[in-house]
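Newbie here. two chains, one complex. Structure please?
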Amino acid sequence: MSIPTPTSGRGAARRRALIGRTVFAAPGLIYITIFMTIPILLVLVYSFFQRGRFGGIVWEFTLENYVRAFEPVYLQVFSNSLVIAGTTTVLALLIGYPTAYAIAKLPTRWRTVALVLVVLPFWTNFLIRTYAWIILLNSEGPINSSLVDAGIISAPIGFLYTPGAVIVGLVYAYLPLVILPVYASIERLDRQLIEAAGNLGASRARAFFDVTLPLTLPGVMIGAIFVFVPSLGNFVIPELLGGGKTVMVGNLIRDQFLEARDWPFGAVLALFVITLLVVLFALQAAISRRINGTGKRVSSRA
Amino acid sequence: MHKIGWLRVPLVATYAFLYIPIAVLVVMSFNASKNPFNWAGFSTKWYSALFDNELIRQGFINTMIVAVGATILATILGTLLAIGVARYFRSAVVEAYSLAPAIIPDLVLAIGLLAFFALIGVTLSLFSVLLAHVVFGMAFVSAVVIARIGQTDSSLEEASRDLGASATTTFFRITLPSLAPGIIAGALLVFTLSLDEFVVAYFTDGPSTPTLPIVIYSMVRFGVTPEINALAALLLLVSFTIVISAQRITRLTDAV
Protein backbone atom coordinates (compact mmCIF):
# COMPACT_ATOMS: atom_id res chain seq x y z
CA MET A 1 0.00 0.00 0.00
CA SER A 2 1.41 3.36 -0.92
CA ILE A 3 1.64 5.98 1.76
CA PRO A 4 -0.01 9.19 0.54
CA THR A 5 2.15 12.28 0.68
CA PRO A 6 0.77 15.10 2.87
CA THR A 7 -0.20 17.22 -0.14
CA SER A 8 -2.10 14.50 -1.95
CA GLY A 9 -3.78 13.57 1.37
CA ARG A 10 -4.96 17.11 1.82
CA GLY A 11 -6.05 17.23 -1.82
CA ALA A 12 -8.06 14.02 -1.39
CA ALA A 13 -9.69 15.36 1.77
CA ARG A 14 -10.59 18.54 -0.05
CA ARG A 15 -11.99 16.54 -2.96
CA ARG A 16 -14.01 14.40 -0.57
CA ALA A 17 -15.41 17.50 1.14
CA LEU A 18 -16.38 18.93 -2.24
CA ILE A 19 -18.11 15.71 -3.31
CA GLY A 20 -19.81 15.48 0.09
CA ARG A 21 -21.08 19.02 -0.15
CA THR A 22 -22.37 18.51 -3.70
CA VAL A 23 -24.01 15.13 -3.14
CA PHE A 24 -25.44 15.69 0.34
CA ALA A 25 -25.95 19.38 1.03
CA ALA A 26 -26.55 20.88 -2.41
CA PRO A 27 -30.04 19.45 -3.15
CA GLY A 28 -31.44 20.67 0.18
CA LEU A 29 -29.73 24.05 0.04
CA ILE A 30 -30.95 24.61 -3.52
CA TYR A 31 -34.48 23.60 -2.51
CA ILE A 32 -34.45 26.08 0.40
CA THR A 33 -33.13 28.79 -1.90
CA ILE A 34 -35.88 28.22 -4.48
CA PHE A 35 -38.80 27.76 -2.11
CA MET A 36 -37.88 30.07 0.76
CA THR A 37 -35.18 32.61 -0.07
CA ILE A 38 -36.36 33.59 -3.55
CA PRO A 39 -40.03 33.89 -2.44
CA ILE A 40 -39.02 36.16 0.44
CA LEU A 41 -36.79 38.27 -1.79
CA LEU A 42 -39.75 38.47 -4.15
CA VAL A 43 -41.86 39.92 -1.33
CA LEU A 44 -39.11 42.49 -0.78
CA VAL A 45 -39.09 43.39 -4.49
CA TYR A 46 -42.89 43.59 -4.70
CA SER A 47 -42.95 46.12 -1.87
CA PHE A 48 -41.39 48.69 -4.25
CA PHE A 49 -43.90 48.28 -7.07
CA GLN A 50 -47.52 49.09 -7.75
CA ARG A 51 -50.48 46.81 -7.27
CA GLY A 52 -52.14 45.19 -10.24
CA ARG A 53 -55.84 45.65 -10.71
CA PHE A 54 -56.67 41.99 -10.00
CA GLY A 55 -53.86 41.19 -7.60
CA GLY A 56 -50.39 40.65 -8.92
CA ILE A 57 -48.11 43.48 -9.77
CA VAL A 58 -47.50 46.41 -12.13
CA TRP A 59 -43.79 46.92 -12.71
CA GLU A 60 -43.63 50.61 -11.91
CA PHE A 61 -41.31 51.66 -9.10
CA THR A 62 -42.90 53.44 -6.13
CA LEU A 63 -42.32 54.14 -2.44
CA GLU A 64 -46.01 54.77 -1.94
CA ASN A 65 -46.57 51.43 -0.17
CA TYR A 66 -44.09 52.40 2.53
CA VAL A 67 -45.62 55.86 2.94
CA ARG A 68 -49.03 54.28 3.25
CA ALA A 69 -47.89 52.10 6.16
CA PHE A 70 -47.54 55.29 8.21
CA GLU A 71 -51.18 56.27 7.84
CA PRO A 72 -52.90 56.52 11.26
CA VAL A 73 -55.18 53.52 10.56
CA TYR A 74 -52.17 51.25 10.10
CA LEU A 75 -50.11 52.79 12.89
CA GLN A 76 -53.06 51.97 15.14
CA VAL A 77 -52.97 48.34 14.00
CA PHE A 78 -49.19 48.19 14.57
CA SER A 79 -49.43 49.57 18.10
CA ASN A 80 -52.41 47.32 18.83
CA SER A 81 -50.46 44.28 17.66
CA LEU A 82 -47.36 45.24 19.60
CA VAL A 83 -49.40 45.66 22.79
CA ILE A 84 -51.22 42.34 22.35
CA ALA A 85 -48.11 40.39 21.32
CA GLY A 86 -46.12 42.10 24.11
CA THR A 87 -48.70 41.24 26.77
CA THR A 88 -48.83 37.68 25.47
CA THR A 89 -45.04 37.42 25.71
CA VAL A 90 -44.88 38.78 29.27
CA LEU A 91 -47.67 36.45 30.43
CA ALA A 92 -46.09 33.45 28.71
CA LEU A 93 -42.76 34.21 30.44
CA LEU A 94 -44.43 34.69 33.83
CA ILE A 95 -46.08 31.27 33.46
CA GLY A 96 -43.28 29.58 31.55
CA TYR A 97 -40.25 30.57 33.64
CA PRO A 98 -41.41 29.08 36.96
CA THR A 99 -42.65 26.00 35.11
CA ALA A 100 -39.29 25.49 33.38
CA TYR A 101 -37.52 26.12 36.70
CA ALA A 102 -39.70 23.53 38.43
CA ILE A 103 -39.10 20.97 35.66
CA ALA A 104 -35.34 21.48 35.98
CA LYS A 105 -35.65 20.66 39.70
CA LEU A 106 -37.53 17.40 39.07
CA PRO A 107 -35.67 14.11 39.51
CA THR A 108 -33.92 13.24 36.20
CA ARG A 109 -36.24 10.40 35.20
CA TRP A 110 -39.32 12.67 35.50
CA ARG A 111 -37.85 15.52 33.51
CA THR A 112 -38.28 13.91 30.08
CA VAL A 113 -41.88 13.00 30.86
CA ALA A 114 -42.57 16.53 32.09
CA LEU A 115 -41.04 18.04 28.93
CA VAL A 116 -42.94 15.70 26.59
CA LEU A 117 -46.15 16.69 28.40
CA VAL A 118 -45.33 20.35 27.77
CA VAL A 119 -44.69 19.81 24.05
CA LEU A 120 -47.55 17.39 23.37
CA PRO A 121 -50.34 19.99 23.02
CA PHE A 122 -48.10 21.97 20.68
CA TRP A 123 -48.03 19.09 18.21
CA THR A 124 -51.80 18.94 17.97
CA ASN A 125 -53.88 20.88 15.53
CA PHE A 126 -53.61 24.57 16.25
CA LEU A 127 -57.15 25.33 14.99
CA ILE A 128 -58.58 22.75 17.32
CA ARG A 129 -56.67 24.13 20.29
CA THR A 130 -58.10 27.55 19.49
CA TYR A 131 -61.56 26.09 19.01
CA ALA A 132 -61.37 24.63 22.53
CA TRP A 133 -61.19 28.19 23.88
CA ILE A 134 -64.30 29.20 21.92
CA ILE A 135 -66.13 26.61 23.98
CA LEU A 136 -64.36 27.41 27.25
CA LEU A 137 -64.85 31.18 27.08
CA ASN A 138 -68.39 31.11 25.69
CA SER A 139 -71.04 32.86 27.79
CA GLU A 140 -72.71 29.44 28.18
CA GLY A 141 -69.37 27.68 28.51
CA PRO A 142 -67.90 25.81 31.47
CA ILE A 143 -65.95 28.75 32.95
CA ASN A 144 -68.95 31.04 33.05
CA SER A 145 -71.37 28.38 34.27
CA SER A 146 -69.09 27.28 37.10
CA LEU A 147 -68.50 30.90 38.17
CA VAL A 148 -72.26 31.52 38.17
CA ASP A 149 -72.95 28.24 40.03
CA ALA A 150 -70.37 29.11 42.65
CA GLY A 151 -72.08 32.46 43.14
CA ILE A 152 -68.95 34.43 42.26
CA ILE A 153 -70.70 36.27 39.44
CA SER A 154 -74.43 36.75 38.93
CA ALA A 155 -74.49 36.83 35.13
CA PRO A 156 -72.12 35.30 32.54
CA ILE A 157 -69.20 37.48 31.48
CA GLY A 158 -68.60 38.05 27.77
CA PHE A 159 -65.00 36.77 27.70
CA LEU A 160 -65.16 35.79 24.07
CA TYR A 161 -64.50 38.31 21.29
CA THR A 162 -62.32 40.58 23.44
CA PRO A 163 -58.58 41.37 23.24
CA GLY A 164 -58.25 39.40 26.48
CA ALA A 165 -59.57 36.27 24.77
CA VAL A 166 -57.04 36.79 21.96
CA ILE A 167 -54.21 37.03 24.50
CA VAL A 168 -55.34 33.87 26.32
CA GLY A 169 -55.49 32.01 23.00
CA LEU A 170 -52.03 33.21 21.99
CA VAL A 171 -50.47 32.33 25.37
CA TYR A 172 -52.07 28.90 25.12
CA ALA A 173 -50.81 28.39 21.58
CA TYR A 174 -47.18 29.38 22.20
CA LEU A 175 -46.46 28.57 25.87
CA PRO A 176 -44.41 25.43 25.05
CA LEU A 177 -42.12 27.61 22.89
CA VAL A 178 -41.18 29.60 26.01
CA ILE A 179 -40.77 26.69 28.39
CA LEU A 180 -38.34 24.72 26.21
CA PRO A 181 -35.57 27.33 25.66
CA VAL A 182 -35.87 28.62 29.24
CA TYR A 183 -35.59 25.06 30.52
CA ALA A 184 -32.51 24.50 28.35
CA SER A 185 -30.79 27.60 29.74
CA ILE A 186 -31.62 26.66 33.35
CA GLU A 187 -30.32 23.14 32.73
CA ARG A 188 -27.01 24.49 31.43
CA LEU A 189 -26.61 26.81 34.40
CA ASP A 190 -23.45 26.41 36.41
CA ARG A 191 -24.87 25.50 39.82
CA GLN A 192 -21.58 26.34 41.51
CA LEU A 193 -22.22 30.02 40.80
CA ILE A 194 -25.51 29.90 42.71
CA GLU A 195 -23.91 27.98 45.56
CA ALA A 196 -21.08 30.52 45.61
CA ALA A 197 -23.63 33.34 45.87
CA GLY A 198 -25.26 31.51 48.78
CA ASN A 199 -21.91 30.90 50.49
CA LEU A 200 -21.07 34.58 50.14
CA GLY A 201 -24.20 35.39 52.12
CA ALA A 202 -26.70 36.22 49.38
CA SER A 203 -30.29 35.36 50.19
CA ARG A 204 -32.01 32.88 47.85
CA ALA A 205 -34.01 35.69 46.28
CA ARG A 206 -30.85 37.78 45.81
CA ALA A 207 -29.01 34.78 44.30
CA PHE A 208 -31.91 34.24 41.92
CA PHE A 209 -32.17 37.84 40.72
CA ASP A 210 -28.41 38.53 40.65
CA VAL A 211 -27.12 35.21 39.30
CA THR A 212 -29.75 32.81 37.95
CA LEU A 213 -31.98 35.25 36.10
CA PRO A 214 -29.20 37.15 34.25
CA LEU A 215 -27.47 33.92 33.25
CA THR A 216 -30.70 32.44 31.85
CA LEU A 217 -31.51 35.64 29.95
CA PRO A 218 -30.42 34.24 26.54
CA GLY A 219 -32.97 31.41 26.93
CA VAL A 220 -35.60 33.89 28.09
CA MET A 221 -34.93 36.04 25.02
CA ILE A 222 -35.25 33.08 22.65
CA GLY A 223 -38.52 32.10 24.32
CA ALA A 224 -39.76 35.68 24.09
CA ILE A 225 -38.97 35.88 20.35
CA PHE A 226 -40.63 32.51 19.72
CA VAL A 227 -43.84 33.85 21.26
CA PHE A 228 -43.73 37.49 20.19
CA VAL A 229 -43.11 37.06 16.45
CA PRO A 230 -45.69 34.36 15.70
CA SER A 231 -48.21 36.23 17.88
CA LEU A 232 -47.79 39.31 15.66
CA GLY A 233 -48.26 37.24 12.52
CA ASN A 234 -51.18 35.18 13.79
CA PHE A 235 -54.45 35.96 12.06
CA VAL A 236 -56.51 32.94 13.10
CA ILE A 237 -56.71 33.58 16.86
CA PRO A 238 -57.68 37.30 16.51
CA GLU A 239 -60.36 36.22 14.07
CA LEU A 240 -61.77 33.25 16.01
CA LEU A 241 -61.37 34.49 19.60
CA GLY A 242 -61.37 38.24 18.92
CA GLY A 243 -64.39 38.01 16.66
CA GLY A 244 -62.76 40.19 14.02
CA LYS A 245 -62.82 43.18 16.39
CA THR A 246 -59.13 42.84 17.23
CA VAL A 247 -57.14 43.46 14.06
CA MET A 248 -53.47 42.52 14.15
CA VAL A 249 -50.68 42.81 11.59
CA GLY A 250 -51.28 39.19 10.63
CA ASN A 251 -54.93 39.90 9.76
CA LEU A 252 -53.89 42.91 7.72
CA ILE A 253 -51.31 40.88 5.75
CA ARG A 254 -53.81 38.09 5.11
CA ASP A 255 -56.43 40.58 3.89
CA GLN A 256 -53.99 42.36 1.56
CA PHE A 257 -53.03 39.09 -0.08
CA LEU A 258 -56.32 37.22 -0.17
CA GLU A 259 -59.03 39.88 -0.13
CA ALA A 260 -57.88 43.40 -1.01
CA ARG A 261 -55.44 41.88 -3.52
CA ASP A 262 -52.91 44.62 -2.79
CA TRP A 263 -49.78 42.47 -2.73
CA PRO A 264 -47.22 45.31 -2.64
CA PHE A 265 -48.77 46.81 0.48
CA GLY A 266 -49.10 43.35 2.04
CA ALA A 267 -45.40 42.88 1.27
CA VAL A 268 -44.51 46.05 3.19
CA LEU A 269 -46.46 44.79 6.20
CA ALA A 270 -44.74 41.40 6.02
CA LEU A 271 -41.35 43.11 5.86
CA PHE A 272 -42.25 44.83 9.13
CA VAL A 273 -42.59 41.39 10.74
CA ILE A 274 -39.37 40.07 9.15
CA THR A 275 -37.40 43.16 10.21
CA LEU A 276 -38.64 42.82 13.75
CA LEU A 277 -37.62 39.15 13.78
CA VAL A 278 -34.11 39.95 12.52
CA VAL A 279 -33.63 42.83 15.00
CA LEU A 280 -34.80 40.69 17.91
CA PHE A 281 -32.50 37.80 16.97
CA ALA A 282 -29.55 40.20 16.64
CA LEU A 283 -30.37 41.61 20.08
CA GLN A 284 -30.58 38.10 21.51
CA ALA A 285 -27.22 37.16 20.00
CA ALA A 286 -25.59 40.30 21.43
CA ILE A 287 -27.00 39.69 24.91
CA SER A 288 -26.08 36.04 24.95
CA ARG A 289 -22.53 36.84 23.77
CA ARG A 290 -22.14 39.33 26.62
CA ILE A 291 -23.54 36.96 29.22
CA ASN A 292 -21.53 33.97 28.07
CA GLY A 293 -18.44 36.21 28.12
CA THR A 294 -19.00 37.37 31.70
CA GLY A 295 -20.04 33.85 32.70
CA LYS A 296 -16.70 32.50 31.55
CA ARG A 297 -14.79 35.28 33.27
CA VAL A 298 -16.62 34.64 36.51
CA SER A 299 -16.09 30.91 36.47
CA SER A 300 -12.42 31.18 35.55
CA ARG A 301 -11.94 33.53 38.47
CA ALA A 302 -13.75 31.14 40.84
CA MET B 1 -30.74 19.44 45.45
CA HIS B 2 -34.11 18.29 44.17
CA LYS B 3 -36.29 20.37 46.44
CA ILE B 4 -39.34 21.48 44.52
CA GLY B 5 -41.37 22.99 47.37
CA TRP B 6 -43.67 25.80 46.27
CA LEU B 7 -42.59 25.34 42.63
CA ARG B 8 -45.14 22.53 42.54
CA VAL B 9 -47.83 25.23 42.25
CA PRO B 10 -46.78 26.69 38.85
CA LEU B 11 -46.04 23.18 37.60
CA VAL B 12 -49.52 21.84 38.37
CA ALA B 13 -51.18 25.08 37.21
CA THR B 14 -49.37 24.98 33.86
CA TYR B 15 -50.34 21.39 33.15
CA ALA B 16 -53.94 22.18 34.12
CA PHE B 17 -53.90 25.17 31.74
CA LEU B 18 -52.44 23.03 28.93
CA TYR B 19 -54.68 20.01 29.33
CA ILE B 20 -58.09 21.20 30.59
CA PRO B 21 -59.12 22.68 27.17
CA ILE B 22 -58.11 19.43 25.48
CA ALA B 23 -59.96 17.34 28.08
CA VAL B 24 -63.11 19.46 27.65
CA LEU B 25 -63.08 18.81 23.89
CA VAL B 26 -62.67 15.08 24.33
CA VAL B 27 -65.46 14.88 26.92
CA MET B 28 -67.79 17.00 24.77
CA SER B 29 -67.19 14.75 21.77
CA PHE B 30 -69.17 12.08 23.62
CA ASN B 31 -72.01 14.42 24.53
CA ALA B 32 -75.40 13.33 23.18
CA SER B 33 -76.68 16.92 23.04
CA LYS B 34 -76.17 19.12 20.01
CA ASN B 35 -75.57 21.99 22.40
CA PRO B 36 -71.92 21.66 23.44
CA PHE B 37 -72.63 23.37 26.77
CA ASN B 38 -75.18 20.91 28.10
CA TRP B 39 -74.31 17.37 29.03
CA ALA B 40 -77.12 15.09 27.86
CA GLY B 41 -75.59 11.66 28.31
CA PHE B 42 -72.97 9.55 26.57
CA SER B 43 -73.14 9.06 22.83
CA THR B 44 -70.85 8.26 19.93
CA LYS B 45 -73.19 9.74 17.35
CA TRP B 46 -70.86 12.64 16.47
CA TYR B 47 -68.23 10.13 15.48
CA SER B 48 -70.60 8.46 13.03
CA ALA B 49 -71.74 11.89 11.79
CA LEU B 50 -68.08 12.69 11.24
CA PHE B 51 -67.49 9.63 9.06
CA ASP B 52 -70.56 10.52 6.98
CA ASN B 53 -69.35 14.08 6.38
CA GLU B 54 -68.17 14.17 2.77
CA LEU B 55 -66.23 17.45 3.14
CA ILE B 56 -64.22 16.14 6.05
CA ARG B 57 -63.56 12.81 4.35
CA GLN B 58 -62.30 14.52 1.19
CA GLY B 59 -60.23 16.95 3.29
CA PHE B 60 -58.68 14.02 5.12
CA ILE B 61 -57.72 12.31 1.84
CA ASN B 62 -56.18 15.56 0.53
CA THR B 63 -54.25 16.04 3.75
CA MET B 64 -52.92 12.48 3.63
CA ILE B 65 -51.73 12.94 0.03
CA VAL B 66 -49.79 16.07 1.02
CA ALA B 67 -48.49 14.68 4.32
CA VAL B 68 -47.23 11.39 2.85
CA GLY B 69 -45.60 13.08 -0.15
CA ALA B 70 -44.06 15.88 1.91
CA THR B 71 -42.76 13.42 4.50
CA ILE B 72 -41.00 11.25 1.90
CA LEU B 73 -39.38 14.19 0.10
CA ALA B 74 -38.52 16.14 3.26
CA THR B 75 -37.00 13.08 4.91
CA ILE B 76 -34.73 12.30 1.96
CA LEU B 77 -33.63 15.90 1.39
CA GLY B 78 -33.39 16.68 5.10
CA THR B 79 -31.26 13.64 5.91
CA LEU B 80 -28.83 14.34 3.06
CA LEU B 81 -28.71 18.00 4.06
CA ALA B 82 -27.95 17.11 7.68
CA ILE B 83 -25.06 14.86 6.65
CA GLY B 84 -23.73 17.50 4.26
CA VAL B 85 -23.96 20.26 6.84
CA ALA B 86 -22.62 18.34 9.82
CA ARG B 87 -19.88 16.40 8.03
CA TYR B 88 -18.73 18.48 5.09
CA PHE B 89 -19.50 22.12 5.82
CA ARG B 90 -19.08 22.54 9.57
CA SER B 91 -20.19 26.12 9.10
CA ALA B 92 -22.58 27.85 11.51
CA VAL B 93 -23.93 30.01 8.68
CA VAL B 94 -24.81 27.05 6.44
CA GLU B 95 -26.36 25.25 9.40
CA ALA B 96 -28.46 28.32 10.29
CA TYR B 97 -29.53 28.64 6.64
CA SER B 98 -30.63 25.02 6.51
CA LEU B 99 -32.68 25.43 9.69
CA ALA B 100 -34.15 28.84 8.75
CA PRO B 101 -37.37 27.46 7.17
CA ALA B 102 -38.32 26.07 10.60
CA ILE B 103 -37.92 29.47 12.27
CA ILE B 104 -39.36 31.84 9.69
CA PRO B 105 -42.96 32.91 10.51
CA ASP B 106 -45.42 30.71 8.60
CA LEU B 107 -47.37 33.71 7.30
CA VAL B 108 -44.23 35.20 5.71
CA LEU B 109 -43.37 31.90 4.02
CA ALA B 110 -46.99 31.54 2.92
CA ILE B 111 -47.27 34.92 1.16
CA GLY B 112 -43.79 34.54 -0.33
CA LEU B 113 -44.75 31.20 -1.86
CA LEU B 114 -48.11 32.52 -3.06
CA ALA B 115 -46.32 35.36 -4.87
CA PHE B 116 -43.64 32.99 -6.19
CA PHE B 117 -46.09 30.38 -7.52
CA ALA B 118 -48.12 33.13 -9.18
CA LEU B 119 -44.99 34.57 -10.81
CA ILE B 120 -43.72 31.31 -12.29
CA GLY B 121 -47.23 30.22 -13.27
CA VAL B 122 -47.72 27.23 -10.98
CA THR B 123 -51.45 26.56 -10.55
CA LEU B 124 -52.30 26.26 -6.87
CA SER B 125 -53.18 22.68 -5.99
CA LEU B 126 -52.25 19.94 -3.55
CA PHE B 127 -48.92 19.76 -5.35
CA SER B 128 -48.03 23.37 -4.50
CA VAL B 129 -48.96 22.70 -0.85
CA LEU B 130 -46.68 19.66 -0.94
CA LEU B 131 -43.77 21.70 -2.34
CA ALA B 132 -44.32 24.25 0.44
CA HIS B 133 -44.52 21.68 3.23
CA VAL B 134 -41.25 20.11 2.11
CA VAL B 135 -39.37 23.37 2.82
CA PHE B 136 -40.03 23.55 6.54
CA GLY B 137 -40.36 19.78 6.91
CA MET B 138 -36.83 19.36 5.58
CA ALA B 139 -35.52 21.84 8.15
CA PHE B 140 -37.09 19.84 10.99
CA VAL B 141 -35.62 16.57 9.70
CA SER B 142 -32.19 18.25 9.38
CA ALA B 143 -32.37 19.55 12.94
CA VAL B 144 -33.16 16.12 14.36
CA VAL B 145 -30.59 14.29 12.20
CA ILE B 146 -27.84 16.86 12.89
CA ALA B 147 -28.43 16.28 16.61
CA ARG B 148 -28.15 12.53 15.98
CA ILE B 149 -24.91 12.93 14.03
CA GLY B 150 -23.52 14.82 17.02
CA GLN B 151 -24.13 11.73 19.16
CA THR B 152 -22.73 9.13 16.78
CA ASP B 153 -19.14 8.25 16.40
CA SER B 154 -17.62 8.49 12.92
CA SER B 155 -14.91 5.89 13.61
CA LEU B 156 -17.14 3.07 12.34
CA GLU B 157 -17.34 4.78 8.96
CA GLU B 158 -13.58 5.31 8.88
CA ALA B 159 -13.09 1.63 9.75
CA SER B 160 -15.45 0.61 6.97
CA ARG B 161 -13.53 2.72 4.44
CA ASP B 162 -10.17 1.49 5.73
CA LEU B 163 -11.36 -2.08 5.27
CA GLY B 164 -11.96 -1.30 1.63
CA ALA B 165 -15.72 -0.65 1.48
CA SER B 166 -16.74 1.81 -1.20
CA ALA B 167 -18.24 5.18 -0.24
CA THR B 168 -21.68 3.95 -1.36
CA THR B 169 -21.46 0.73 0.67
CA THR B 170 -20.28 2.65 3.72
CA PHE B 171 -23.16 5.09 3.36
CA PHE B 172 -25.88 2.47 3.07
CA ARG B 173 -24.50 -0.10 5.52
CA ILE B 174 -22.97 2.12 8.22
CA THR B 175 -24.04 5.78 8.00
CA LEU B 176 -27.76 5.34 7.34
CA PRO B 177 -28.38 2.60 9.95
CA SER B 178 -26.58 4.61 12.63
CA LEU B 179 -28.71 7.68 11.84
CA ALA B 180 -31.96 5.70 11.43
CA PRO B 181 -33.53 6.65 14.79
CA GLY B 182 -33.06 10.36 14.05
CA ILE B 183 -34.38 9.94 10.52
CA ILE B 184 -37.49 8.08 11.68
CA ALA B 185 -38.17 10.59 14.47
CA GLY B 186 -37.71 13.45 11.98
CA ALA B 187 -40.06 11.80 9.48
CA LEU B 188 -42.75 11.33 12.13
CA LEU B 189 -42.48 14.99 13.13
CA VAL B 190 -42.81 16.20 9.52
CA PHE B 191 -45.82 13.97 9.06
CA THR B 192 -47.52 15.42 12.16
CA LEU B 193 -46.61 18.98 11.18
CA SER B 194 -47.93 18.57 7.65
CA LEU B 195 -51.11 16.89 8.91
CA ASP B 196 -51.90 19.88 11.14
CA GLU B 197 -50.49 22.71 9.06
CA PHE B 198 -52.97 25.44 8.23
CA VAL B 199 -51.44 28.82 7.33
CA VAL B 200 -49.13 27.79 4.49
CA ALA B 201 -51.74 25.40 3.06
CA TYR B 202 -54.40 28.15 3.22
CA PHE B 203 -52.28 30.36 0.94
CA THR B 204 -50.84 27.75 -1.42
CA ASP B 205 -53.78 25.39 -1.91
CA GLY B 206 -56.24 25.49 -4.80
CA PRO B 207 -59.91 26.16 -4.00
CA SER B 208 -61.19 22.74 -5.13
CA THR B 209 -58.88 20.61 -2.97
CA PRO B 210 -59.01 21.88 0.64
CA THR B 211 -56.84 20.04 3.15
CA LEU B 212 -58.38 18.96 6.45
CA PRO B 213 -57.17 22.01 8.45
CA ILE B 214 -58.72 24.29 5.81
CA VAL B 215 -62.02 22.38 6.14
CA ILE B 216 -61.79 22.70 9.94
CA TYR B 217 -61.12 26.43 9.63
CA SER B 218 -64.19 27.02 7.49
CA MET B 219 -66.34 24.99 9.92
CA VAL B 220 -65.00 26.69 13.05
CA ARG B 221 -65.51 30.12 11.51
CA PHE B 222 -69.22 29.49 11.31
CA GLY B 223 -69.52 28.53 14.93
CA VAL B 224 -69.61 25.51 17.18
CA THR B 225 -70.43 22.14 15.64
CA PRO B 226 -70.30 18.93 17.68
CA GLU B 227 -68.66 17.02 14.83
CA ILE B 228 -65.58 19.19 15.33
CA ASN B 229 -65.30 17.84 18.89
CA ALA B 230 -65.20 14.29 17.60
CA LEU B 231 -62.68 15.24 14.93
CA ALA B 232 -60.60 17.04 17.57
CA ALA B 233 -60.52 13.94 19.77
CA LEU B 234 -59.42 11.75 16.84
CA LEU B 235 -56.73 14.17 15.68
CA LEU B 236 -55.42 14.48 19.24
CA LEU B 237 -55.16 10.70 19.40
CA VAL B 238 -53.22 10.59 16.11
CA SER B 239 -50.84 13.43 17.06
CA PHE B 240 -50.21 12.07 20.56
CA THR B 241 -49.49 8.60 19.21
CA ILE B 242 -47.03 9.89 16.62
CA VAL B 243 -45.21 12.27 18.96
CA ILE B 244 -44.90 9.71 21.73
CA SER B 245 -43.56 7.09 19.33
CA ALA B 246 -41.05 9.61 17.93
CA GLN B 247 -40.00 10.35 21.50
CA ARG B 248 -39.64 6.64 22.33
CA ILE B 249 -37.59 5.96 19.22
CA THR B 250 -35.10 8.72 20.04
CA ARG B 251 -34.95 7.76 23.71
CA LEU B 252 -34.57 4.03 23.14
CA THR B 253 -31.51 4.65 21.07
CA ASP B 254 -30.08 7.22 23.44
CA ALA B 255 -29.88 4.41 25.97
CA VAL B 256 -27.88 2.20 23.58
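Moderator note: Chain B touches chain A through 85 residues (CB under 8 Å). Chain B has a mean pLDDT of 88. Thread marked as resolved.
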